[in-house]
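USER:
Make up one protein:

ASSISTANT:
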Amino acid sequence: MKNETNGQKPLWRITDNERRITLLFGDIIASGAALIISLYFWAMKDLWMEFTWQSLLNRTPTWYYFLPFIWLLILIELYDTNRAGRRGDTIRGLTVSTIIGTFFYLLVFFISEPNSLPRRGVASFIATAAGLTLLWRLLYIRIFTAPVFLRRVIIIGAGRAGSTLADEMIRIDPQPFCLVGFIDDDKKKIGKKIAGVPVFGSSKDLLQIIERENVTDLIFSISGDMQPSMYSAIFAAEEKGVAVNTMPVVYEELMGRVPIALLGDDWVLRSFVDRAHASGSYELIKRLFDIVGSVVGIIFLALIYPLIMLIIVIDDGFPVLFKQIRLGKSGKKFVLYKFRSMKKDAEEDGIARFAVENDDRVTGVGRFLRKSHLDEIPQFINVIRGDITLVGPRAERPEMVEDLQKDIPFYRARLFVKPGVTGWAQVNYGYASNIEETAIKLEHDLYYIMHRNFVMDLSIIFRTLGAVVGFRGL
């Protein structure tokens, strides 16, 4: 579907970061209002209690005032600007956030001393925050996805890279930009339509076309040699206030993955290695978070192990645990632990195969364990040992890595970091059952490695919890 705005000039050129700030600002107001409303109804429920500063100081525990901050953390996955622009994703995300918030409160409530936590106050906050946040997000969708707020874009280069980016842009709903057309110095392409939009002209026409079409952004997508006139035209456009970005950067922002098929052989050395290094403070916080998370996970494992062992043995006998050699950071081998979900001797011929969504090798109990992700719980042993981390690329078998790196460019680059229990590729794509799908998952993994930070890790963890709550396999 092509963008149609009849050449209307955008009221305001809003960047993705500005959209996120707008979303956050609205969520802060909604959660703050929810706090005030919940405090009021909590006080008014008891007729003898007046809603005064004194009552707030004497009755309300200090931690209660942190509920808006906790709510914003739970909403973290809804700051993806593409998701935030879709009504269905917004409603689903808020529903999952509400369920997660309620679940964690109930967990704390039942392990706390009786009458030590205000059920009515927390329940009213969660309900009010969910309602007000939903109203704000629907208002955001109605206003900020309107064509008058879309940047108007021309792609420089109508070759493979440019046309691939255009195809991806057009498939996204809601549309991230208004794609006006292409500029290309190849005379054979001028006048033709690619991905449903025209190739307007060459570099000598660029400034005139920018003026005529109210263009706000140029995306540079030429991978080969370029004429000097194109350089001059692009620099002149930038001097007039037109934003200039490169295809790989825009592709990453829109798709959350790296376009490996469009990158040169030297990309790993020229770009990936520099961007893949994380700060020492991030690595320290990540390891501390791994330790805390794995301790909680191992306690949970100890509680559920007898029951899981029983149902696995009844269904398909021993063994209960599945152990397999996997590759970790820098290609280091380690033994990965999971609850067994497949039949015994599922690979009796010794040939490694892709795991697929409805794999006929999976047992009846194993299907439940996979859907609920309970089969992953023993991996917390690997986390506390330092073999893997909570968030990272999925650990693969040595023989699979050996085969896949022959067919997929840059496949071994995913070994730059520790593998994880969950990851960016898992929450965005799910199972990969062939080479093409594995390449797409690799694109997500490489994107994570280059952009990873603590906020992104938290987002992945919350999205994983949402998948667990919804019994959706990753």
The longest helix spans residues 280-316.
